[in-house]
Specification:
By secondary structure, this protein is mainly beta. It is 12% helix and 31% strand.
Length: 128
């Protein structure tokens, strides 16, 4: 098992933070129902979109030796009723940054989202 130095981890996390804020738009996280793709290279099925949340710019709140914490998102309206099973984070250029499994990588108070309801995220910490 390899171990990286604290300086190497900081460099990776800072590069990730720069990637998140790249592009002319704000970074977003979209929650989906259904089966999560095998990799971030596989397009998400847009018919499974439940809600899109937007981060402020810059989206990075804090960078530490072990994680990058994102600022809270806006509060968005759910556009389709369903059970949130996974989420995909996109940077400001619309590039996929990460896929998160609901219940494992990200927690929601209620995974059953109702049409017209609202959702926001208060804290996300991403680790390399």
């Amino acid at each position: 098992m390899s171990k990286t130095s604290i300086n190497a981890r900081l460099a990776m996390i800072q590069a990730f933070a720069n990637f998140m804020d790249s592009g002319s738009q704000s970074a977003t996280v979209i929650f989906y129902e259904g089966v999560q793709p095998e990799s971030t290279d596989v397009a998400a099925d847009s018919s499974n979109t439940l809600v899109t949340l937007t981060f402020p710019e810059p989206c990075i709140k804090e960078v530490t030796a072990t994680y990058a914490e994102l600022h809270p998102t806006d509060t968005a309206t759910v556009i389709k009723s369903g059970t949130a099973t996974w989420a995909r984070i996109y940077n400001g250029a619309g590039e996929v940054t990460a896929d998160l499994t609901v219940g494992t990588d990200i927690s929601l108070v209620n995974t059953n989202l109702a049409l017209g309801g609202t959702l926001s995220i208060t804290s996300i910490k991403l680790r390399p």
